[in-house]
Amino acid sequence: MDTTQETRTRNGVLKANGSENTKVIKKMNNMKKTRKIKNSNFVVGIDIAGEKRGYHGAILAVGGKDIYSLFHLYSPDEIVKYIDDVPGKCVAIAIDSPPKARIKGPETRLAERELHRDHYRVQWTRRPGGDIQEWMKNGEKLWSVLTAKYPKVIETFPTAASDGLADKKVRLGLNLLAGKKKRKFYKDYIDACICAMVAEAVLQDKAKVYGAGGELGGIYTL
User: Fold this and answer.
1) Where are the domains of the chain?
2) Residue-averaged pLDDT of the chain
3) Which class is 42-221 in CATH?
4) Is 97:48 a contact under the CB 8 Å cutoff?
5) Are 26 and 157 in contact (CB under 8 A)?
6) Per-residue pLDDT tens over the stretch 146-188
7) Strands of the 208-210 sheet, one edge to the other
8) Any alpha helices (H) in the chain, and if so which ranges?
9) Biggest CA-to-CA distance, the chain
10) Is 170 exposed, middle or buried (0-12, 13-18, 19+ CB in 10 A)?
11) In angstroms, rounded to a whole number, what is the distance separating the alpha carbons of residues 151 and 165?
């Protein structure tokens, strides 16, 4: 008679009370640990605003179906600390801002021209002599810090990327938006979530890119 019993610990790991099924239970537990390590890679999406509004961000596990963290911070150093405190490894970051607040050439960026041809309203990166927009200056500061630390940082445009959401299954729990302080930033948080989805799509070679090879690089969408 097999008297082996199974119990489940709080973290879902199985234990065997007996000997006959011990090897099977160990194998199942090792599979759980392997999945946990594999899913520890994550991507970050960041929406950029001016100094007063700051940065809004979202964290998505690679291969995951849920946004599991949102943040609202005001400096690049705060963002680095936040990302480094997330369990796992940050493998890509998508930012809703150009790498530089000003371009060098006399023409507009290729990526922005291509988006404009697709009938998107573009906030053009300023050419020499033009006034620099505050949010782009804020974005340039963030790019400078993140590219020095993380392996892949790309530019995205949530307005265009949202047109590719129809077949996406990523969910945002409304509990992450709890509190009246977050209410006026709903759009910023949603844009950050879209940015995170684009970061994952780039890793999976499923993203669309505008203006690859142009000044400041391409802009990625879904």
Assistant:
1) 5-36, 42-221
2) 86
3) alpha beta
4) yes
5) no
6) 999 999 999 999 999 999 999 999 999 999 999 999 999 999 9
7) 171-172, 66-73, 55-61, 41-48, 89-96, 153-156, 219-221, 208-210
8) 22-38, 76-85, 110-117, 134-147, 158-161, 180-183, 186-203
9) 86
10) middle
11) 26
- 3-class DSSP state of 220: strand
Q: Which two tokens stand for residue 92?
A: 């890509």
The confidence band for 142, taking pLDDT boundaries of 50, 70 and 90, is very high
Q: Which of 127-131, 166-170, 188-192 has the lowest mean pLDDT?
A: 127-131
Q: Which DSSP string corresponds to 92-155?
A: EEEEES-SSSB-SSSSPPHHHHHHHHTT----PPBPTTSPPPHHHHHHHHHHHHHHTTSS-EEE
**Cα–Cα distance measured from residue 159 to residue 50, given in angstroms and rounded to the nearest whole number:** 18
Its pTM stands at 0.82
What pLDDT was estimated at residue 129?
84
